[in-house]
Amino acid sequence: MHRYRTHTCGALRPSDVGDTVRLSGWCHRIRDHGGVLFIDLRDHYGLTQCVVDSDSKAFKAAEAVRSEWVIRIDGRVRTRPAGTENAELPTGAVEVYIDDLEVLGAAAELPMPVFGDVEYPEETRLRYRFLDLRREKLHANIMKRGAIIDALRRRMRDGGFFEFQTPILTASSPEGARDFLVPSRLHPGKFYALPQAPQQFKQLTMIAGFDRYFQIAPCFRDEDARADRSPGEFYQLDIEMSFVTQEDVFQSVEPVLRGVFEEFAEGKRVTKEFPRITYADAMLKYGVDKPDLRNPLVIADVTDEFAEEAVEFKAFKGVIKSGGVVRAIPATGAASQPRSFFDKLNDWARSEGAPGLGYIVFEDEGGTLTGRGPIAKFIPAEIQARIARKANAKAGDAVFFAAGPEAKAAGLAGKARIRIGDDLNLSDKDQYAFCWITDFPMFEWNEDEKKIDFSHNPFSMPNFDHDAFLKLGEGDAETILGIKAFQYDIVCNGIELSSGAIRNHKPEIMEKAFGLAGYGRDVLEAKFGGMLNALRLGAPPHGGIAPGVDRIVMLLCNEPNIREVVLFPMNQRAEDLMMSAPSEATPKQLRELHIRLNLPEKK
């Protein structure tokens, strides 16, 4: 017989009744029924009920065991007594009568229980993550993560992609988030950087002649934590393809994501054909560039209506005169809601820094659509009707309004759209609703530095005549800010899963693009010399994308926080409480690296 087990704790079935078996695992739960002990024994594969009574030579040893002790038991499989079966367990029809028991690993008093779903403070959970991972839900999430990654790999290989590994120690890059720097012992005063993404390496792989690349790539960014982003490190499905257009990328990537989501959706619907939405339309209709399409509400621009001379609502008039806009958010069926519904939305808008949300409630009066509410009296009936048509509102609906500078009005309208959809139960949550966002602006205005900046990926190809692009200068700011790029995102249920682009494979166009963003040729050569040299020696047109693995798993596990699907996450302050990282370096280590610390004074 094997030293530790003949079966796992999830393997025994009625066909094993009468057999002598050996199991090893953790004591999940212990129940004392007065002379009879029931031990639910758990391992990675499942749980088996084990029974010992005072007639067994193992009874004394069994009395000593406690929760989460690791034990080995020998015993006979028998059918559970009628009425005690557990249909929710694969092993629920049988139990093991213990003849012998050995303690393999005793456990001290637990800082948190494994049995049950009691919530514990995040600090405790992260400090004792190995205990937290024994809990059924989190354990299942991590196993599902592995299965999802396997499915991604399988589909990528089936699509003709080959998996590569790119360097972890590389050079710092001036764009994007803050780098994690690694000091070089052999080159005093110089530093490697951990890759924010394998961006340059995957492009160089295409330039090297490998046609279709993918990698489950670790990425490192010194950013603050969020619910959908781990601090420090994350993983992405990194993809690159040669001799492709934007449409080719869509046709290659969409089936992979759709197939994986269908495989793990557990009955939820998955978008069959991902709709394409331009960035401009997304900001207008949804108030955000990552729209949640489970929500059916569509925002409309009603600036022209409120600018009409006949409209007497002065608050919006002032906004429009100063260059602002007015956005209308429909609220289907809201007319039947009590006054408190509208008051709460107004209070919420004020908490967002807005003066409030004006609204009109539409009713049918003798076959005529009529508006009522605080601002309805300031708007003539014919203009109310135009607003209703634009907002796709009918009798029984309400329309809310957000006004201000375009970016702020769009942002408030987008948040209001989500809140209204949730409050009125309009969103169909039983689905994974995907879309592509396309035609991102190549550049944006940096108000703080009073200069033009990249708005997205700086390595993207501008969607602009190349000869005309090369002639742009300082006096063409308006034209430059209007240039679109071959950049695109995949969004699912309001979460950005990935960004991608057709790359800028022409060195003269890249030099010009960086120059327009204020990076001199010397900076470009110093930071991207390897890339530029490669582009100068024959580069194919190429493009790619990088869906976030952690976010994909988070969605498929229906978890609101990414730490629930990461094996060993850090806390909000980018600390590993379990391993005490980051930690101080010893004086010897600092001397070897030629580093002297200049720490801030403690307050």
UniProtKB/TrEMBL annotation:
Q: Which SUPFAM superfamilies match?
A: Class II aaRS and biotin synthetases, GAD domain-like, Nucleic acid-binding proteins
Q: What class of enzyme is it?
A: ligase
NCBIfam families listed in its UniProt record: aspS_bact, PRK00476.1
Record-annotated site: Important for tRNA non-discrimination: 33, 83
* Cell location: Cytoplasm
This molecule's function is given as: Aspartyl-tRNA synthetase with relaxed tRNA specificity since it is able to aspartylate not only its cognate tRNA(Asp) but also tRNA(Asn). Reaction proceeds in two steps: L-aspartate is first activated by ATP to form Asp-AMP and then transferred to the acceptor end of tRNA(Asp/Asn).
Q: Cite the binding residues for L-aspartate.
A: 175, 221, 456, 503
Lineage runs: Bacteria, Pseudomonadati, Pseudomonadota, Alphaproteobacteria, Hyphomicrobiales
Q: Which PANTHER family match?
A: ASPARTATE--TRNA LIGASE, MITOCHONDRIAL, ASPARTYL/LYSYL-TRNA SYNTHETASE
Q: Which organism does this record belong to?
A: Methylobacterium gregans
- Put simply, this protein is called Aspartate--tRNA(Asp/Asn) ligase
* Alphabetized Gene3D superfamilies for the sequence: Bira Bifunctional Protein, Domain 2, GAD-like domain, Nucleic acid-binding proteins
What the entry lists under Pfam families is as follows:
GAD, tRNA-synt_2, tRNA_anti-codon
Q: EC annotation?
A: 6.1.1.23
Under Gene Ontology molecular function, one entry of this record is: nucleic acid binding
> Where does the chain bind ATP?
221-223, 496, 548-551
Q: Which domain of life is it from?
A: Bacteria
* Keyword annotations of the record: Aminoacyl-tRNA synthetase, ATP-binding, Cytoplasm, Ligase, Nucleotide-binding, Protein biosynthesis
Per UniProt, subunit arrangement is: Homodimer.
Gene Ontology biological process terms, A to Z:
aspartyl-tRNA aminoacylation
Reaction catalysed by this chain?
tRNA(Asx) + L-aspartate + ATP = L-aspartyl-tRNA(Asx) + AMP + diphosphate
Instruction: Choose one Gene Ontology CC annotation of this protein and give it.
Output: cytoplasm
Determine if Membrane is one of this entry's keywords: no
Record-annotated Aminoacyl-transfer RNA synthetases class-II family profile domain positions? 148-569
Task: For the region Aspartate, give the residue spans.
Answer: 199-202
Family listed: Belongs to the class-II aminoacyl-tRNA synthetase family. Type 1 subfamily.
- InterPro entries to which the protein is assigned, alphabetical: Aa-tRNA-synt_II, aa-tRNA-synth_II, aa-tRNA-synth_II/BPL/LPL, Asp-tRNA-ligase_1, Asp-tRNA-ligase_1_N, Asp/Asn-tRNA-synth_IIb, AspRS_core, GAD-like_sf
